[in-house]
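As a warm-up, study this chain.
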Amino acid sequence: MPIVSTAKMTARQFLQLGEDPPGIRLELVDGEIALSPSPIPSHAFVISTLLRILGLHIEENDLGKIFSDVDTVFGEFDVRRPDILFFSKARLHLIGEKAMEGPPDLCVEVISPSSMEIDRDDKFKQYQDGGVANFWIVDPAIKTLEAFQLQNRAYTLVARGKDSDQLSLPPFPDLQIPLQKLWLKK
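Now compare it with the structure written out below.
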């Protein structure tokens, strides 16, 4: 009879694997390695545009640091790579050498056709349980942005915009985000 290992990989073991193979993103979910494909153009465009908008505001107001696609430890057996992460100045100590060592103040996930269930269900629950204060879900296919805020250990929808709406969202109450800039026009 063959011997099958049921041991889970820990976050520390996962982080020792090194860089991902080209064209593949690796995450650790409940001790198992999960693969996801590279982003599609509309997904990448939203990320780069939102990084520019948020990054400028964060830098001009000395609010903290913004990152994209960085390993983030959410527990002993979980390492995710949010599309965009923000850490306020008070929480910069959570930025480690190889990974983020705790929940960001904001995680942003941009939905791709292959990631809808993961982003809306799995990551929603994991970020909520992990103490991420703010979670935004951007869907380029239907041109929406939904903002959730952690209140009493559960996410509450605090804003939703679509198409060409302008939104002011936590944790950036002084920033107006023009949604029409996020949508890739051909």
